[in-house]
Amino acid sequence: MEELLLNAESVVSRTRSVKPNAHVDNIKRKTKIYSSYFIQQLKKPDHAYNRGESVFTSSLVSIILFTALVTISLFLFTTNSYWSNSPSFLSFFMDAFLLTIFIIGLVIFSTFLISSFFGPQNSFKTIISFYGGQLSAPIISATISIFLMLVKSFTYGNAILTIYLVFSLFILPLYVISFLLTKNHSGVDPHYKDLYYLLRLLLF
């Protein structure tokens, strides 16, 4: 009986030691996958257009990470520049995060509708992959903005914040739409072709 109890305790201890290791290994593996994706997209942003839904998870992580960094930047901006009675970080973060993710969702959904009507038929997941695949540079910009604000360089931090927000919420969606319309260029009505050329002029 003692031998059986000792064997049972040994099995339980080995199981407990294996489970955390497996969990940590899983996190490391996913982190490695995302870091590889991030660097690849930073070097070649257009690569996302060739992979589509296969990078949906990594693209979604980029969108969530970008939204979190934007929210932190906005918190530092508001608490140090304009508000005398600054809100708590948690309450501000939750409100600003949900608002920012809602705006990004609207941007992606609008891109999806335009693609459905005037471009190639892509799934909503594919559009998310296209958009999220272009966020590597804005994520780095957001990180730089946070760092500058933390060291009290608010002028440069706010400037970078404004630039990457304008780029991510306005210019980037237009770029994705431009790519989608180009893929289905022959099937676009002449009126929309004219709008497409105007769009190209605005972008480039």
Give the tally of β-strands: 0
Order of helices and strands: HHHHHHHH
What about the largest sheet? Answer: none
Helix content class: over 70%
Which residues sit in consecutive blocks of at least 5 with pLDDT less than 50? none
Shape: globular
Q: Give the helix/strand class.
A: mainly alpha
As a whole number of angstroms, the C-alpha radius of gyration is 23 Å
Terminal CA distance reads: 80 Å
Mean pLDDT: 79
Beta content comes to under 5%
Please give a structural write-up.
The protein is globular. The mean pLDDT is 79. It starts with a helix and ends with a helix. The longest helix is centred in the N-terminal third of the chain and has 42 residues. 83% of the residues lie in helices and 0% in strands. The chain has eight helices and no strands. The chain is an all-alpha fold and 204 residues long.
Features:
204 residues, 83% helix, 8 helices
Helix and strand topology:
Blueprint (H helix, E strand, L loop, with lengths): L1 H42 L4 H4 L4 H26 L7 H30 L5 H9 L3 H15 L3 H30 L6 H14 L1
Short structural description:
With 204 residues, the protein is mainly alpha-helical.
